[in-house]
Amino acid sequence: MRTAAVMAVLILVAATVIVRASGRGEDVAAPEDTAAVSLPAATASPTTAAAEPTAEMTARSGEIPSSGTVGDGSWALAAPVPAAAGVGTVHTYALRVEGGTGLDADASAQEVAQILADERGWTAVEDVSFQQVADPEQAEFTISLASPPTVDRLCAPAQTHGRWSCRIGEDAVLNTDRWTLMTPTYDDLSAYRAYMVNHEVGHFLGHGHETCSGAGRAAPVMLQQSIDLGGCRPNPWPTADGAA
């Protein structure tokens, strides 16, 4: 009987590991990293008259803030942003924003398009370009800006814990708390947003997670920079990976 009980426990543990390893998250530790990464605690949602957290407060406090935002599950599709003729391999994407998050879909699309077209980004590294389309059915992948509870649902079985983002299947799912509040590893919100987009699109292009190549060097974009820089300095652009 004791042997049978032990075997049952081992089977349950193995099944849990398989489920947790099946997702691929932006800031969700890869299976080989889970034992080494201690996720910082999020701050509690505001329940008093205290000021709402801001990106600047995040950088100063060293804490990962939570806005308490819960989206309504509806989606606003952004109109395609006009772009120059694509070069190299052209990848199409759609962009949507969850209702109830306070973000404007078209304004978000403008910022994402600028990041993807930047000469410091994947266009220079991979000989690719990106074209936004109106219909997700016609897109190779979709960028979704979603509230933390919706991110957790869309990213499952990856464990995003209401804090992180992920790339799963044909979706790059960006957490609106991170989009608006970033994490303490950055003190520049625009740069952090560029990191978020480039990291998730990097997963779409087939790149896995990387580690810091040396103290003081520019962190690889595929490093999980939201959690820990590992001695590197923050860097949102793949062309600068590892620069001294």
UniProtKB/TrEMBL annotation:
Q: From the UniProt entry, list the residue stretches annotated as the region Disordered.
A: 40-70
Membrane-spanning segments: none
Q: Which Pfam families match?
A: DUF3152
Q: Which GO terms describe its molecular function?
A: metallopeptidase activity
All residue ranges annotated as the DUF3152 domain in the record: 70-228
Q: Where is the composition biased (Low complexity)?
A: 40-59
Sorted alphabetically, which InterPro entries does this protein's record hold?
A: DUF3152, MetalloPept_cat_dom_sf
Q: Which Gene3D superfamilies match?
A: Collagenase (Catalytic Domain)
UniProt superkingdom = Bacteria
Protein name listed in UniProt: Membrane protein
